[in-house]
Specification:
Blueprint lengths: L2 E6 L4 E3 L12 E2 L11 E4 L5 E4 L2 E3 L3 H11 E2 L4 H9 L1 E3 L1 E7 L11 E3 L9 H5 L1 H4 L6 E6 L2 E7 H9 L2 H16 L9 E4 L12 E3 L6 H8 L2 E3 L2 E9 L12 H18 L12 H11 L5
Parallel strand pairs: 1-7, 3-5, 6-16
Antiparallel strand pairs: 1-2, 1-4, 4-5, 8-14, 9-12, 9-13, 10-11, 11-12, 15-16
Bound molecules: flavin-adenine dinucleotide.
Length: 296
């Protein structure tokens, strides 16, 4: 099984095929070089290795949590977290790159926007994603004279990920011929697509607020699991774009929540002899700058 299996107070675990082979050479090891005398978490990796730790910062994407959160933590995550994971949306946005042998768009054209008229579709056709998915490609952007980028999102993107490259290439070519009213638009020599929904370590692109969800759910996701007999001790901290109440869906949201989680762990151990500090002038400046971005 791909994922993290977390056991705390007793054990805990992470699995990741992408794990750097050079890291954690030993079968069982303690990754911390600080005064780690009581690792209460056991992390079991997909490659068979086990890591013991006193704290974990869990940055599993929301898409992976949606798929696995019920199975990989022991004891299970509290219900309020599982419900928040269910309520929030992890949407898909994919890119389709089309590479051509020769330019064919007028040099003055930077993007071909697609506007479809659905009025001619029967109710049956509207319900059948196999007949309509390509209508969700909202534009082809010119990256260079011989490279176009198509954008697609939502269920249509998920459907596109299951098609063959040849099917996507054919559809894109017929769309361009139709919208440019030019039957001589060439077929691309290459078609490359992202597949964020199909990828086991993402299961989508980024978090969105679903109908019925709210920022309270994001707060619930960000809430750490604390040690029962000592609430000042954080066992699992949570970070990642899905845990920032304003900047969810962004890289800077992921960055800031990672810093906050690390800071909270360090704070909880600040009275120890070998305590660490996160302070670094450059990144402090960056963090304050990002925090100061206005959302209005
Ligand atoms: C097409 C697209 C366009 C985007 N455009 C922008 C943009 O313009 N601006 C912007 O700010 N953001 C953008 N984003 C969003 C941004 O990329 C993400 O919000 C951000 O990268 C999330 O970072 P993260 O650390 O939360 O998650 P990730 O970067 O996904 O990190 C999660 C980590 O967990 C690991 N992992 C997953 N499952 C497991 C498992 N089972 N066991 C162990 N490890 C696991 C993964 O391998 C990965 O290393 C875009 C995203 C997409 C897909």
């Amino acid at each position: 099984m791909n994922g993290i299996n977390c056991r705390w107070q007793r054990k805990k675990s992470i699995d990741n095929e992408n794990e750097n082979e050079n890291e954690n050479e030993n079968e069982n090891e303690n990754p911390s070089n600080c005064s780690n005398t009581n690792p209460s978490i056991e992390i079991q990796c997909e490659n068979g290795k086990t890591i013991f730790a006193e704290h974990v910062i869990c940055t599993l994407p929301l898409g992976v949590l949606k798929e696995k959160a019920n199975d990989i933590f022991e004891p299970p995550l509290p219900n309020y977290k599982l419900e928040a994971i269910d309520r929030l949306l992890f949407g898909t946005v994919d890119k389709i790159f089309l590479e051509y042998d020769r330019p064919f768009l007028n040099p003055g054209v930077s993007e071909v926007m697609l506007l479809w008229d659905d009025r001619g579709l029967s109710e049956e056709e509207k319900e059948d994603i196999s007949k309509t998915w390509f209508r969700k490609i909202y534009s082809f952007t010119k990256i260079s004279e011989t490279l176009l980028l198509g954008w697609i999102s939502g269920k249509a993107a998920e459907y596109m990920e299951k098609l063959s490259g040849a099917e996507v290439t054919d559809i894109c070519t017929s769309i361009l011929r139709k919208f440019l009213n030019d039957p001589f638009v060439p077929a691309p020599k290459n078609c490359l697509r992202t597949s964020w929904h199909s990828q086991p370590y993402t299961r989508g692109s980024y978090t969105a607020m679903a109908v019925g969800a709210s920022q309270l759910d994001i707060h619930s996701l960000a809430e750490p699991i604390i040690q029962e007999d000592d609430p000042s001790k954080i066992v699992i901290a949570f970070a990642g774009e899905h845990t920032h109440s304003s900047f969810y869906s962004t890289v800077h949201g992921a960055y800031l929540t990672g810093r906050t989680a690390a800071q909270a762990l360090l704070e909880s151990r600040k009275n120890e002899k070998n305590s660490f500090s996160l302070s670094c002038e450059d990144t402090s400046d960056l963090s304050s700058w990002i925090q100061g971005i206005s959302l209005n």
